[in-house]
Amino acid sequence: QVQLVESGGGLVQPGGSLRLSCAASEWVFSIDDMGWYRQAPGKPRELVAHITADGNTNYGDSVRGRFSIARDSAKKTFDLQMNSLKPEDTAIYYCTAKLRLLGRDSFSDYWGQGTQVNVSS
């Protein structure tokens, strides 16, 4: 059962912006840490951005200052604003979160299905 769904990927020119969103399903009771990772062809998955339950953020070195993560706990969503995009930002972007599902007593890690971002002229 899919618990996280990404949206907002697509094709953008270098220097442009995109906003990715990740929405938790109706079966999610509570969300702890949230994050975005990406994986380019032939490369390992890498951290893009991370936000804790109390709003502390952390960013990968290659995106710091250009990308911004934010969460809306009431709506159970979190977004990744990507500015000044570069061709090397091309990758599949995955959202991930520690979720507590309805009827469960503990949190577990879940991943979205991924959304493609292409930065090209």
Task: Describe this structure in a few short sentences.
The chain is 0% helix and 55% strand.
**Broad shape:** elongated
The helical percent reads: under 10%
* Structure classification: mainly beta
Radius of gyration: 14 Å
Q: What is the strand content? A: over 45%
Compute the number of helices: 0
How many DSSP-defined strands? 11
Quote the distance from N terminus to C terminus.
37 Å
Q: Features of this protein?
A:
121 residues; mainly beta; seven-stranded mixed β-sheet; four-stranded antiparallel β-sheet
Explain this structure to me?
The mean pLDDT is 95. The protein has strands spanning 4-7, 10-12, 18-24, 28-39, 46-51, 57-59, 67-72, 77-82, 91-101, 108-111, 115-119. Strand 4 (28-39) and strand 5 form a beta hairpin. Helices cover 0% and strands 55% of the residues. The strands form two sheets. Strands 2, 4, 5, 6, 9, 10 and 11 form a seven-stranded mixed β-sheet that branches. It has a four-stranded antiparallel β-sheet with strand order 1-3-8-7, with no helix packed on it. It is built from no helices and eleven strands. The protein is mainly beta.
